[in-house]
Amino acid sequence: xSTFLYRLGRFAYRRKWPVIGAxxxxxxxxxxxALGLMKPFSSSTSIPGTEAQRTLDVxxxxxxxxxxxxxxxxxxxxxxxxKITAGGPAEAVADLxxxxxxxxxxAAVTPPSVxxxxxxxxxxxxxxxxxxxxxxxxxxxDATKQEVEAAAxxxxxxxxxxxxxxxxxxxxxxxxxxxEAVGVLIALGVLVLVFRTLRGAIIPVATxxxxxxxxxxxxxxxxxxxTMDSTSIILAVMLGLAVGIDYAxxxxxxxxxxxxxxxxxxxxxxxxxxxxxxxxxFAGATVVIALAALAVVNIPFLTVMGLGAAATVVVSVLIxxxxxxxxxxLVGTNIATSTVPVLRRSAERAQRRAxxxxxPGRGQRWASSVARRPWLVLVTCLxxxxxxxxxxxxxxxxxGGGVDPHSSAGRAQTLxxxxxxxxxxxxxxxxxxxxxKTAVLSxxxxxxxxxxxxPGVSSVSPPVPASSGDTALVNVTPSSGPESxxxxxxxxxxxxxxxxxxxxxxxxxxxxxxxxxxxxxxxKLSSALPLYCLLVMGLALxxxxxxxxxxxxxxxxxxxxxxxxxxxxxxLVAVFQWGWLSDLLGITQTGPVxxxxxxxxxxxxxxxxxxxxxxxxxxxxxxxxxGRPPTEAMVRGFGHSSQVVTAxxxxxxxxxxxxxxxxxxxxxxxxxxxAIGVLLDAFVVRMTLVPAVMAVLGHKAWWLPRVLQRWxxxxxxxxxxxxxxxxxxxxxxxxxxxxxxxxxxxxxxxxGE
Length: 753
Known about the structure:
By secondary structure, the protein is α+β, with helices and mostly antiparallel strands. It folds into 4 domains: about 1-40 and about 175-360, Multidrug efflux transporter AcrB transmembrane fold (Up-down Bundle); about 50-170, Multidrug efflux transporter AcrB pore domain like (Alpha-Beta Plaits, 2-Layer Sandwich), CATH 3.30.70.1320; about 360-405 and about 525-705, Multidrug efflux transporter AcrB transmembrane fold (Up-down Bundle), CATH 1.20.1640; about 430-510, 2-Layer Sandwich (Alpha-Beta Plaits). The chain contains 24 helices and 11 strands. It has helices at about 1-15, 15-35, 50-60, 85-100, 140-155, 180-195, 200-220, 230-260, 265-290, 300-320, 325-330, 340-355, 360-370, 375-390, 410-420, 435-450, 485-505, 515-550, 550-575, 595-625, 630-660, 665-695, 705-710, 720-725, and strands spanning about 70-75, 105-110, 125-130, 160-165, 395-400, 430-435, 455-460, 465, 470-480, 510, 595. The strands form 3 sheets. Strands 6, 7, 8, 9 and 10 form a 5-stranded antiparallel β-sheet that branches. It has a 4-stranded antiparallel β-sheet with strand order 2-3-1-4, with helices on both faces. Helix 6 (about 180-195) runs antiparallel to helix 21 (about 630-660), helix 8 packs parallel to helix 10 (about 300-320) and helix 21 (about 630-660) packs antiparallel against helix 22.
């Protein structure tokens, strides 16, 4: 693979304009396809095969709710001591609903009434349903929304509290905002410190943005044939930016070092692509495999999310080994110099340190200090990560919490919760089915009577038969919110109470509703998480055993990944579930952790952890194979790789961390989990725990049974063979690779550290 990538890098360098033109053409095609094929996003949390989803499908057929038009809510509250059903508040509500119904694009407005249950028990709060002519929320014009908002403002002027909620008035999701731009700027600053040239820093950012643009535009075009949530796009942006910049960093750093040492730029671009590019391909493959493996869980929205992000990573890898060498061809030898005086002097100092003898860099000094007290470092890291992981024992999963409580939709939900109770928006629906119409109604009545006696039930509606007669539904309103453990327990009690009735009446009783669907989704994800972890961990062990030809190193890598994962989940629970540091991070509401977030965290963090593991440990292995003692090999290998890995981790943290300040709670959680995961895995596990374990193991770290030695193939991830051929004596014959006088070590950093 290294030879192929070497030739590909040289080809792209020589044919820079055709390569750049080809990628620009791909970008143009993706943009045109997105504009012509893009469809509105559609949020779906269904899981085929779950009871709640099967029952919901039946209920939609037996009790059709309408013609697919978009609806919204106008929520009213009368002043203290008054009711919306009498006096001035009643007149204000009538005027408001009339004016809103006359707005262009509004099909009908159903005012609140006691009969339909849309007036609270105390009479102060009411809900009017607004039905729009549009079939999608984003098809409602701004003029229509402004007319409804104007009617609401008139109601406020009459003394009512009025808020707008529902699908039609949900806050707009922004893919990129100012804080995400700040993350890119921080990444650019880190790159300037690494390369000591502005042009060298801009190249990884520019190529990463091209990759993200192509990936996201392609995903938008796919919305014409695939149901996709907006979160899938945001994850693709988040991951595409992070890995795109990181992968380019690895290659450009290698290329810049070689050019500064006197290597021909074209030759250097090919060698950097063949060596560091090989590690990039492996790192990208691990991320792609981990994300694509989400499909085995058989959860449609999670499958789409994982495959979408994986596709963006594939684009980032392809750009790193083709477009990036072509852009390096535009820069030429200028990649090694800077026109900014401060950066030029900094680069000169770094070059002097790199060529100085007997002066270890910061990376080597850190590794040496760890090697002197490996057991102390090991125990400290384990205790620290264990303490951070402790809150994960209280992990609760859910699918709510997506509405900002400070928005009008959030305030509308607060009014509903206060007026009708928190369970009003999370009604459980029991569907009775059978061949005998009398038996169906009898079963529905019997279950309704039993459910009324259960604790945590606010109200139970009389059974409502379908027109076919063989189906009836019963609405159960919990006294607790949709995301609470009490509602989850009530669902379990209802399902337990039905067994005797089903046997006696020869009917089927199933429970559905938004809360039941969300609970079933969370349960399915919780049960699938261990299987997914085993799949990912098994993949990690197999890949790393092949790469490092050792047993202890892969086991250490896998266990270290589990430690960083546990600590990340613990931090996620402490912040988003318990509310620690919530004010500092702008978190407006706490509650269960997003149900699919732990699984996403496993997939993404696994790929990134293996990325850092390969870049750090592969150089240690190279030093060990050259005959150095285990501890010295660890120190020297760590010194050569640590700076670029540190920069890569800081870039990841900056990109992911910028999404913590997004508007949606879902995006906040994703950004925080990934940022803290990379922080812990890169700096605590890979940069601290790994050197300590390697120092303790010594020669045992590289032990491999003889059977595996004969059976396992030789995999040269970082192109060691290619580098050896490059530095071969003048008498060596290798017709397909030109001889080069410069000596370049794999993973060598600009400053020699």
